Each structure stands twice: as structure tokens, then as C-alpha cells.
User: Fold this.
Amino acid sequence: MTARTDGLTLGVEEEYQIVDLKTRGLVPAAREILPAAQQSLGGEAQHELLLSQIETATPVCHTLAKVRARVARERRAMIAAAACDGCGIAAAGTHPFARWEEQEITPKSRYQGLERDYAQLAREHLICGCHVHIGYDDRDAALAVLNGVRLWLAPLLALSASSPFFAGVDTGYASFRTEVWSRWPMAGPPAFFASRNEYDGLVRDLVATGSVEDATNIYWDVRLPEKSPTIEVRVADVCATIDEAVMIAGLTRGLVWTCDEAASRGDPVEAVRPEILRAAHWRAARYGLEGDLVDVAAKRSVPARDAVGALLRPPRVGGVGRLGRGLDAGGRHRRGRRERGPPARRLPPRRPPGGRRRPRRRRNGARDGIARGPNLARLAPWGQATFGLTPHGGGRTL
Assistant:
């Protein structure tokens, strides 16, 4: 391990949906929920583009155990804050039946500026992602790492895919969030950069042409943030469970470590054309783990199992363990839908004819001591994992 990667730190940002526990629809309640969440989390709880969304950002973590503890704490605090306002919190890349016309832009200058500049793209931004920051303070060396990481983003996307439904229909995609996001002009995999001068020159040109207001509006799937000395990977859907969020964070750190080791040895990185990378990302978004993915180095299709297996081979993810097992959130959502029916047809419980409303079964607090409202799994007729927030991991849904 090089000096640059000795004790790599991590940070995880997650975007959540705010839902009505009765109608299961989105609720523009961020202004009501955020103050209560910030009493527990401080600046870790933040606004997002829409008032029906809310975000958390962990502090700097030195181990995956710390990541797990912080993500669990943030999710519990968000659920408790939302419950005070009669709402729930959902972790999925898209909401299954919400309409953009019913959403409200957060009334902050940053988000109003995005609506002004990007118009309908901002108004239709009903998507939630997971961003992983890996501490890396050598900006020049970080470009070599970025060049390597960009080749492995598609398997990470396939592993995280959790957004098959959008606007009331099954889109046929494992991650339709990716397709909604890809319409933004600065989204997608970045180009290959031969030098720091080339990178800085491109950023200057984008700002000078008015293509972006500043470098913070460059939203590549892996980027070097202007305000923090990190490498940020932004390709993943928000994960349904904590286990999966920790897995994505661990894989990302392992990937950065491996690419840094390769760069320090002087190993060449192929300048794969952006058309190949975009095709690989589209395939991962379309099929997730249920079809073939693109091996961007060999320029051929391979089974998803083989593509993920290549990512998991040592030393790329040294120390991550069994984190690739049991995933496929998009597939879980579809299986749940087949079992319970399409989301557009699932309505809140009705009163029985001529009778009183049946009492709702509730679960009280378990190990985390939180008194919960209706099980959030009941909000997700297309699959329990869709609205699953699991402070203990292991696939259990609050």
C-alpha cells in the first residue's frame, strides 16, 4: 500500500425518499423533517433537489465498521424524524409511481438555479443515488486513479441497481435511475485524462463556455470534487439495505486502492473510448445482474457473474470479504411485484363493507429501541426491499 492510500478514509452520501405511510406516495415534507433530523445528526442531514427527498452524508470514516455504524445511525434518525411528521423514509433509486408534476423544488438558491438552468431535467429528477468518497489528497496522482476506476463502474452499477419502476410502470431496466440521470449534460463516465493540465483545461473551458457555473456542476460518475480531497464515485443507486451500502463503499475503496497500486507501478491504463463505457453503463442499467455485461478491456459481452467476479478478484477488493453475495435489488423488487401486484393498483386498505376499519398491526422497537409505525415493507407491494431501511442489515426491513 502506498503512502497515498495508507489508511484510506471513506464517506457515504445517501439520498432518500419521503413517503406518506398511508398513500405510499411522495410527500414534500423535507422542511418539516430536516430540523428534527438535524437535532440528532447535525450537518449530516441535508436538503436535496426536491422537497420530497432528503440526504445524509457521513463524517470521515476510517473503517467499514464505522461506515456501517454511521449509516445505521443516520437511517434510524431519519426514520424517527419522519415519523414525527407522519411520514416514512424509503431507500430506492426511483419511486415506483410518483409523478414529477406533483413535486416541488427545494426553495434554496442552489436548487432554484438548477431548475432555472436545466428546466425539465431538474423537475423530473425523481431519483436517489449513493455517492462514495475515498480520501485522496494527491490531486495529480488522483487522475491516474480516476482513469483506472472509470473502467470498473459498470459492475458497481449492476450490483447496486434498485430502480426498475418509474411513473407507475415496470421500465424493463434494473436501474432506470441511471437512464433518467444520463440526460444531464455533465453526467456519465468521464473521459481519459493524460495529464493534470488536460483535466484543468477542460474544467476551465466548461466554465468559460457557460456549460457549467463552476466545477461543482460537473457530475461525472467518478470525479475529483472541488471542495474535498477525495475521489468521489457517484454511479450507484441508493441501496435498499445497509449491508449493500457498506458493500458498495468497501468495493469502491478496494477499487481505488487497486488502481493506485497499479499507477504506482507504472501499469498502463487503456484509454477506452467513451462510447464503449457508455454502452457498458447502459447494459448494466438495463439488465443489472440478470444479463450479460460489457468487458470494456476485452471488448466483448460476458455474463454478469463473470464481470462482477473480475471486480472481486484479489487484490482489487482486499479485505472486503463476501460482500458480493445475495445482491440484485432490482430483481427482488420485480419478484415482489409479481407476488403482490403492480404498484399502480395497490391502494391503501379500505374499510370492510358495513364494518369498522381493521386495526393495523404495528411493530414496536427492537434492538435499536425505536418505536416504529407500520412496517415499511408494507409500503412496497412490488418487493420488500424497495422501501427497506435496515439498521441492522441482513435484509430485514423496518
Summary: Residues 315-327, 343-398 have pLDDT under 50 and may be disordered. Residues 242-265 form the longest helix (24 residues). DSSP finds twelve helices and eleven strands in the chain. The CA atoms of residues 300 and 347 lie 45 Å apart.
